[in-house]
Fold this protein.
Amino acid sequence: METTRRVQVGSVAVGGGAPVAVQSMLSCPTDDPEACLAQIEALHAVGCEIVRLAIPRADVLDGFGEVCARSPLPVVADIHFDYRLALGAIERGAAKLRINPGNIGSEKKVDAVIEAAGAAGIPIRIGVNAGSLELHLREKEGWTLSEKLVESARLAVAHFEQRGFRDIVVSAKAHDVVQTVETYRLLSAELPEVPLHIGITEAGTIRQGTVKSAVGLGILLSEGIGDTMRVSLTGDVTEEVRVAWEILASLGLRRRSPELISCPTCGRTQIDLVGLANEVQSRLETIQSPLKVAVMGCVVNGPGEARDADVGVAGGDGEGAVFAHGKVLRRVPEDEIVDALFEEIGRLVP
Ligand code: SF4
């Protein structure tokens, strides 16, 4: 958001009008640097901009340091409970920390982390959650959970700022979409200057998690709320990034690969349109351009229905037509449709 402060996560700017940054979290063990770096490469290839690693124990810190040193993306250390893990991660090159002050313990321990992050010049994400709310907030009568979470975040931000630390990002995620939206709206109103990390936590497997994330994050982003986002899915981590980009693209906020327009098929379809659309979609992922590409089921209606597309193909009986802005350019046999389409795309995207 324009009104938030900008913080720098390695080479990636978050907040202050910077494009909404896409991030993910590794699913492999932090003490296996080769596996982590392979996963980071895969995430990088699909457009991930920031990665987060869990630091569950002190004996993973050296592996974490190696990943930080070799990663092409800025690496965030995810810390719970033990402030010494945060200090160790900072020493080993973390580009940012994610902590929950509510489970770090005494003020002195939180202050030690603030001081070390300040000295290293890295930001901290304050991630509050319902499970570790302060006792006085948990017992507040008549307050909604969202109000309690926001108050917890507000108190933590005030504590950090009193110590002169302002490189803060805040998150307050829940797995309930409506509650998450309500919480972030309140956060944005209460802490308008603080960049927000948005996400629906534990959103579920690919289909359910995609829908929940698209609805929740879509509402927030369309209201200008959110500076960096993570889609949480139980599945391949690269799917999180693909879904995040689809959400951003569908709102017209950021686009990384061409937009695919494809029809739902009907009784007029005479080719394997589903297979064709999937093949085109996966080949388009390597192209970075705002092109609109159509894959339509029939020559009779397809080109007209997709006249918005820069280029497209429409299926016929054993053949396909390549078209641009609604006009058919040529007809090719069915097994040459994809190559013919990418020949045309190649003319538009050098
Ligand atoms: Fe049916 Fe043709 Fe429209 Fe696809 S483009 S839905 S096949 S009419």
